Amino acid sequence: MKIEWFIDVPIPDAILEKMALYAEKCTVCEGICIPCSATVRLCDDDQIAQVNAKFRGINRSTDVLSFPAVAYPAGKTAGECEKALRREFDDETCSCFLGDIIIAVPHIYAQAEEYGHSVEREACYLLVHGLCHLMGYDHMEDAEKKKMRELEERILSANTNDPAKGV
């Protein structure tokens, strides 16, 4: 998975590196065999609140927003839609563009504390969550939510260095 980072609010390089590893796990766990890419903006609460208001009509900050580039058929996800992915092929990156993700860095730190886990784990979770949306998953209905949460946990429990450990 190729990620083009736009970093308005910096976070440690070690966390960015771990996030990139889990981005790769997303496509592997989804069964995508062709190169994919996405853009990820790391920003502050004000920036994400503006985008949330403009595109969702919700005038407040949030943790992560996803803007898919691929239109999957109803009930299908990226692993089942190679033709749809290939329509988003980008000659510059030699990959299929999945879409854009925006993550509010202050939410990474606040939610890590709230949920009692590491900042690294929360950053990876928010990226994985956003990438699942870009791959066609949603959590509006209970059945969809269950399917998405199972994939997120499978991705997060995988570790590129030690399969027995995740973030």
Q: In total, how many domains does the architecture comprise? A: 1
CATH class: Alpha Beta
- List the helices and strands in order: EHEHEHEEHHH
Give the CA-CA distance, first to last residue.
18 Å
CATH superfamily (homologous) name: Metalloproteases ("zincins"), catalytic domain
CATH topology: the name is Collagenase (Catalytic Domain)
Instruction: Label the structural class.
Output: alpha/beta
Q: What's the helix count?
A: 6
Largest sheet: 5 strands, mixed
In percent, how much strand structure appears in the residues?
A: 15-25%
Instruction: Specify the helix fraction band.
Output: 40-55%
Task: Write the CATH architecture name.
Answer: 3-Layer(aba) Sandwich
The strand count comes to: 5
- Globular, elongated, flat, extended or rod-shaped: what is the shape? globular
Low-confidence stretches: none
Please give a structural write-up.
With 167 residues, the chain is of the alpha/beta class. It has a single domain (2-157), classed as Metalloproteases ("zincins"), catalytic domain (Collagenase (Catalytic Domain)), CATH 3.40.390.30. It contains 6 helices and 5 strands. Strands 1, 2, 3, 4 and 5 form a 5-stranded mixed sheet that branches. The protein is globular, with a radius of gyration of 15 Å. The model has no long low-confidence stretch (mean pLDDT 93).
Question: What's the quick description here?
Answer:
With 167 residues, the protein is α/β, with parallel strands linked by helices. The protein is 47% helix and 19% strand.
